[in-house]
Amino acid sequence: MKNATRAVIGGRRSAKEARTVNPPLTRASTIVFPTYADLQAANRTRSGDGLTYGLHGVQSTYELEEALCAIEIGDRDPAGYRTRLTQTGLMAVTMPMLAILSPGDHCLLPDSVYGETRNFARRTLSRLKVEVEYYDPLIGGEIAVLMRETTRLILVESPGSWTFEMQDIPAIAAAAHAGGALVMMDNTWATPLYFNAFDHGVDISMQALTKYVGGHADLLFGSVTASEEVYSRYLQPFWRDLGAGVSPDDAWLALRGLRSMPTRLSHHHAAGVRVGAWLMTRAEVAEVIHPAMPHDPGHALWQRDFTGAGSLFAFVLPEDRSSDAHVAALVDDLALFSMGFSWGGYESLILPTNPQAARTATTWPRPGRPGGRVMRLYIGLEDPEDLIADLAAGLDRLAALPPS
Ligand SMILES: *Cc1c(COP(=O)(O)O)cnc(C)c1O
Fold it and tell me: How many Å apart are CA 207 and CA 222, to the nearest integer?
């Protein structure tokens, strides 16, 4: 079965009677049991495995977990893996880290990691006496030299969501496993539809469902998928101890988003590459950073490991056209692009970014690459030709200002 089909049928129980296409939304705190034997059976179930108490899950959350898990693991046996939901994408990063890391442990994070993950590491992990070390996202198998006796977890994020450096995940995973560490991936950009994390050595795959799964800029949610072994050893007890329940309403909405995600993503991929190729023809653009485009330094890895691309990428303005006035001329009067954090919805976004401020192990710009302002683009579901016309007018306004 292909993933587009899994996205449509996942989590749905077929019945031989008339039924609604979408499963009903179930909300519950209390579950009631008809007999003492049923109550005893429920007490023996691990949380998350059946109906015991609303905190651990109800039909609407299980349906989403099942559907996501089917896509995450492809042809593997679903009995060997488990997906759990989190209230936000960020919690899908931070909860496994808290579940796995103890005082004295060493943890490696890519220098291009999602900004809030970096904040969590700096404040909370350091308070818990976890040693956090940042590595060059391009390090590949040489990460072996950074491994210590105490290295328990390596995070990967490919590409990073500001600078879009591609990582050699199989090489990093091989080094991690040789040294006894687990690998967790933030797979929000490609989603499991375009990058199967488990085929490339990842142990824990998380996504911010807020982005492409939700797809409509109206919910915050996350998911974590791991093998049964990793799940029962680290994640399940921690979820239980923390009381980390999620809203069935949001699960229902995310499941509705998932049904159309494969179709939306193929539009996002094509439209992103189309807009990126057009940007490269403009004199006001010093560089387009998009791993699905052949000129990109990460293209070979993208081509080797990925089957499609997210539509979040960046372009760099020339250094003499990077002043605040130039940026404002470009963005202030755009008709279709809005400025906003987050992405993954149906509308296109543009965001001036400052990658150098969030780096400690490497410098930005990377050696040999242009140093102007980095503009992040998210290409939504509008017609890409309309988006190009909007950006063309913005770049014309920018070009009308004298160089600085
Ligand atoms: C948005 C995002 C997150 C966090 O998701 P929230 O639901 O906003 O907490 C994590 N990682 C990446 C790459 C993201 O883009």
Answer: 6
Cα dist from 224 to 64, 71, 293, whole Å: 12, 13, 29
The response to whether residue 250 sits with its C-beta less than 6 Å from ligand 1 reads no
Centre of ligand 1 to C-alpha 187, Å, is: 10
Report the separation in Å between the CA atom of 90 and the middle of ligand 1, taken as the mean of its atom positions: 5
Residue 259 to residue 204: CA distance in whole angstroms: 23
Task: Please name the residue that has the structure tokens 């979040």.
Answer: 312
Contact 337, 348 (CB under 8 A): yes
Residue 150, ligand 1, Cβ within 6 A: no
- Dihedral angle of Cα 235, 237, 241, 242, to the nearest 10 degrees: 10
Q: Which residues contact 119 (CB under 8 A, 6 or more apart)?
A: none
Query: Does residue 112's CB lie within 6 angstroms of at least one atom of ligand 1?
Result: no
Residue 161, ligand 1, Cβ within 6 A: yes
| Dihedral angle, C-alpha 299, 304, 310, 314, nearest 10 ° | -10
Give the whole-angstrom CA distance, residue 57 versus residue 251: 10
Quick one: pLDDT at residue 46?
Answer: 65
Nearest CA to ligand 1 atom 5: 89
Quote the radius of gyration of the chain (alpha carbons, Å): 22
First to last CA, the chain: 56
What whole-number distance in Å separates Cα of residue 196 and Cα of residue 72? 6
**Substitution site in 86, 112, 116 for ligand 1 pocket (most atoms within 8 Å of beta carbon):** 116
Cα separation, 87 vs 389, whole angstroms: 38
Say how many C-beta atoms besides its own lie within 10 A of residue 136's C-beta. 18
203-243 pLDDT, tens digit each: 999 999 999 999 999 999 999 999 999 999 999 999 999 99
Report yes or no: 401 and 329 within 8 Å, Cβ to Cβ. Answer: yes
Q: What is the pTM of this model?
A: 0.96
pLDDT at 152: 98
Q: Which residue's CA is minimally distant from atom 6 of ligand 1?
A: 89
For the stretch 107-123, pLDDT in tens is 999 999 999 999 999 99
Closest CA to 143 of 102, 105, 173: 173
Structure tokens that stand for 137 in this block: 């996202």
At residue 279, the 3 state secondary structure works out as helix
342 CB less than 6 Å from ligand 1? yes
β-partners of residue 386 are none
